[in-house]
């Protein structure tokens, strides 16, 4: 979700490992069978503006465990299809059909007018990349962001995947970004504050001596019967984020980390967010609930590891830091 704009200008000298991403063609809108329950914005693109409670009921939580699991399954399916030469539109088709096969509505579809069923953010695209006719090429990195709406609630999760032979700096970026998400998750406990999450993420990223930046314009969010609730989860230390975490609160942690400074610009499609520097960026995301003792990840498959474990493995096995 979008927050404020901020400008910080710094230069780094190493050129990015590939040329700039170019937009492709966007295919016609995919349809969702009439029997599948839809979120309130499916028809007119306008999400509800009513305020949603931060704490879920047991019934809502039970349903969110299901929608979270389904989102994790769809994410695994799409990540497994990533290969050199596939178009992001084809990944959208796979994700759309995987959601529909699970009696779920792909939440991005027509959310504030978004034209596709998932987000595909390649190389210097920070988030909200629109699937199109561009083919993945050897050495790309791609974030796949899946949200599904099932039985009245959303589950939201994303993973960055390596395409073919990826350069060492990009692999390091992906590894640091995943570690940053887990540092944030590790700060979640009843009685902790929202600002503790961003503080933990910052500490993790800062271990690398200013080589990486944290995007501030897009943040984690409360989630439940609405895709994005008013609860905001910055991925940097924000002294104003004093909200105390309580059991039953559900939200995402989804840090976007950049090589070099984290300045953002947008394509005129009003969705695609990119680094000003042209340097690469990565992201991982889970949906979670605060428990009596800590945190429970909701976006986990029923069996087997989540995408971040399956598809970051090649990254984990490279040299430390
Ligand atoms: N899944 C994204 C998030 O993590 C939101 C995508 S909104 C869309 O919050 F409209 F671009 F799909
Ligand atoms: Co999200
Ligand atoms: Co998401």
Automatic annotation (TrEMBL):
Residues binding a divalent metal cation 1, per UniProt: 145, 156, 285
Basic residues bias: start-end ranges: 1-11
Region (Disordered): 1-55
Pfam families recorded: Peptidase_M24
Keywords, ordered alphabetically: Aminopeptidase, Hydrolase, Metal-binding, Protease
EC nos: 3.4.11.18
Cofactor(s) needed: Co(2+); Zn(2+); Mn(2+); Fe(2+)
Cofactor binding notes: Binds 2 divalent metal cations per subunit. Has a high-affinity and a low affinity metal-binding site. The true nature of the physiological cofactor is under debate. The enzyme is active with cobalt, zinc, manganese or divalent iron ions. Most likely, methionine aminopeptidases function as mononuclear Fe(2+)-metalloproteases under physiological conditions, and the catalytically relevant metal-binding site has been assigned to the histidine-containing high-affinity site.
Biological processes, Gene Ontology terms: proteolysis
Catalytic activity: Release of N-terminal amino acids, preferentially methionine, from peptides and arylamides
EC category name: hydrolase
Domain of life: Bacteria
PANTHER family registered for this protein in UniProt: METHIONINE AMINOPEPTIDASE, METHIONINE AMINOPEPTIDASE 1D, MITOCHONDRIAL
NCBIfam families assigned to the protein according to its UniProt record, in alphabetical order: met_pdase_I (TIGR00500)
Function: Removes the N-terminal methionine from nascent proteins. The N-terminal methionine is often cleaved when the second residue in the primary sequence is small and uncharged (Met-Ala-, Cys, Gly, Pro, Ser, Thr, or Val). Requires deformylation of the N(alpha)-formylated initiator methionine before it can be hydrolyzed.
Family designation: Belongs to the peptidase M24A family. Methionine aminopeptidase type 1 subfamily.
Subunit architecture: Monomer.
Name under which the protein is recorded: Methionine aminopeptidase
Species in which this protein is naturally found: Candidatus Neomicrothrix subdominans
């Amino acid at each position: 979700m979008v927050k404020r704009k901020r400008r910080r200008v710094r230069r780094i000298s190493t050129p990015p490992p590939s040329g700039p991403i170019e937009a492709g063609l966007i295919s016609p809108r995919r349809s969702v069978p009439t029997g599948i329950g839809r979120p309130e914005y499916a028809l007119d693109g306008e999400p509800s503006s009513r305020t949603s409670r931060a704490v879920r009921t047991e019934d809502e939580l039970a349903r969110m465990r299901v929608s979270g699991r389904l989102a994790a399954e769809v994410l695994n399916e799409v990540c497994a299809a990533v290969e050199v030469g596939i178009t992001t539109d084809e990944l959208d088709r796979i994700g759309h059909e995987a959601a529909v096969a699970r009696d779920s509505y792909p939440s991005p579809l027509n959310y504030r007018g978004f034209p596709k069923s998932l987000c595909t953010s390649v190389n210097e695209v920070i988030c909200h990349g629109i699937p199109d006719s561009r083919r993945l090429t050897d050495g790309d990195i791609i974030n796949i962001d899946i949200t599904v709406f099932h039985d009245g609630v959303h589950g939201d999760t994303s993973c960055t995947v390596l395409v073919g032979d990826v350069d060492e700096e990009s692999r390091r970026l992906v590894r640091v970004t995943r570690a940053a998400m887990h540092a944030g998750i590790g700060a979640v406990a009843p009685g902790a504050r929202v600002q503790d999450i961003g503080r933990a993420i910052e500490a993790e990223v800062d271990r690398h001596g200013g080589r990486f930046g944290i995007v501030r314009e897009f943040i984690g969010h409360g989630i439940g019967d609405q895709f994005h609730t008013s609860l905001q989860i910055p991925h940097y230390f924000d002294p104003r984020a004093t909200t105390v975490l309580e059991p039953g609160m559900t939200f995402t942690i989804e840090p976007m980390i950049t090589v070099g400074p984290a300045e953002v610009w947008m394509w005129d499609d009003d969705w695609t967010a990119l680094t000003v520097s042209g340097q690469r960026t990565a992201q991982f995301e889970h949906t979670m609930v605060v428990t009596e003792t800590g945190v429970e990840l909701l976006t986990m498959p029923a069996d087997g590891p989540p995408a971040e474990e399956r598809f970051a493995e090649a990254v984990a096995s490279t040299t430390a830091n």
